[in-house]
Write a structure and sequence with these properties.
alpha+beta; six-stranded antiparallel beta sheet; 14 strands
Length: 409
């Protein structure tokens, strides 16, 4: 942390904290929050700065809510002489044991803005974690809830939780608490700014894809702004889904669709592909050739398609054992040039790929069922891939002037 540690006055010897040093730490918090997006550095620097003021801080914890499909929150804790450890809290139907037994949970759920427990007495404590802190030499625990936004208005980022632990005999002094409370709004504002950026990135990753989200965040937001990109285009679709949906309860349809498409999309991600959009019972994905070897990219895309079919087979076996109908995936792979960018109206845009290559990939996928194949690839893909493929004949693609030979693994 870029702060001079000379000139700080120990709170417990002088009874006050050097106002100049406190202002220096306050300025650093604001500068760090504006200049960088690293929450870990901010929390670690704040903790070290507080300790340098002479405040007897042995541990600090920060947790912030996230806007992410699988992550509920993130943050971390700092220990004197141990450093900072980052944490990420996954969304789960099962509550975390540590969280359930924490005073921070009570603060958040009951909207308690401040809480304090003296640990240097022999009286029993309400929470096991505080007993643990006492056993480790803790003497004083202080918690704070910082709300983001206007009171009473629910947002996806409601706020953050802080806690401080002292091991000084007698705990924190009144001057210590006053100094910490003075600095909390600055820290909260800096954390809020970083959390908002992270939330925007997480939401864009979730709704438009990692690469597309990065391009949007970097400023590619004008309608019609697009670039030419050579890529493998993948179109995946669930065969017979319309009939399945007609015969199945709505909640079961959604659960089955999420289960199936979730597994398939994860495989695409693992093979360096990017799912751009879900199309009802399927999805559109690309494997960019930008700066990459075409044969290697085709190998990744083909491996993804084969793994998707294998995973789909295992899932259908489990569905069959449970008396549920199968959902068979069909996959088409095509190699060509696409336009990659913003399409839509002035106020509602979609960052996606368009062009003949996308249309041809969709037409190829439509032939999977009549040809009795789960995977079909185009001539251009077959030529670039170098893989051993079997021809399934030359076919006319609907709406495409030129017929072409199709292949399957």
């Amino acid at each position: 942390m870029p702060m001079q540690q000379t000139g700080f006055v120990d709170t417990h010897t002088a009874g006050t904290v050097d106002a100049v040093a406190v202002q220096a730490l306050s300025d650093w918090i604001v500068e760090e929050g504006l200049a960088r997006n690293n929450l870990d550095v901010l929390i670690r620097g704040f903790s070290e700065g507080v300790a340098a003021l002479g405040i007897p801080l042995v541990r600090m914890h920060v947790s912030i809510a996230a806007l992410h499909p699988t992550v509920k929150g993130y943050g971390g804790y700092w220990w004197r002489n141990r450093g900072f450890v980052a944490e990420e809290y996954e969304r789960s139907s099962l509550p975390r044991v540590g969280w359930e037994a924490s005073p921070l949970r009570v603060m958040l759920e009951d909207n308690v803005m401040a809480m304090r427990y003296r640990l240097d007495a022999n009286a029993p404590l309400d929470y096991p974690v505080l007993e643990e802190f006492r056993e480790q030499g803790g003497t004083d625990w202080v918690g704070r809830l910082v709300r983001f936004g206007e009171e009473g208005i629910q947002t996806g980022l409601p706020g953050m939780l802080l806690s401080w632990l002292s091991d000084q005999p007698g705990g924190f002094s009144d001057a210590d608490i006053a100094t910490l409370d003075r600095l909390v709004p600055r820290l909260g504002l800096a954390c809020y700014r970083i959390a908002l950026k992270r939330a925007a990135e997480d939401l864009l990753d979730a709704y438009v894809g990692t690469d597309a989200g990065h391009r949007v965040m970097s400023g590619q937001i004008e309608r019609g702004a697009a670039s030419r990109l050579y890529s493998v285009v993948m179109v995946a679709d669930l065969r017979g889904f319309t009939r399945f949906a007609d015969e199945t309860v709505g909640e079961d349809v959604l659960a089955s669709l999420n289960e199936t498409l979730g597994d398939l999309a994860d495989i695409v991600d693992a093979h360096k592909g990017d799912v751009l959009k879900f199309l009802g019972d399927g999805f559109l994905a690309i494997f960019s050739l930008e700066g990459r070897d075409p044969e290697a990219v085709c190998a990744e895309a083909l491996a993804a398609a084969e793994e998707m079919c294998a995973a789909n087979g295992r899932l259908n076996a489990a569905r069959g054992a449970a008396g549920k109908p199968p959902l068979v995936v069909d996959v088409a792979l095509h190699l060509g040039e696409v336009m990659y960018g913003n399409v839509g109206s002035n106020r509602r845009l979609d960052f996606t790929v368009i062009g003949p290559a996308v249309n041809e990939a969709a037409r190829i996928e439509a032939l999977c069922t009549p040809l009795g194949e789960q995977i079909l690839v185009s001539e251009s893909f077959a030529a670039a891939s170098g893989a051993k493929l079997r021809s399934v004949g030359t076919h006319q693609l609907r709406g495409v002037a030129r017929s072409q030979e199709l292949f399957t693994p």
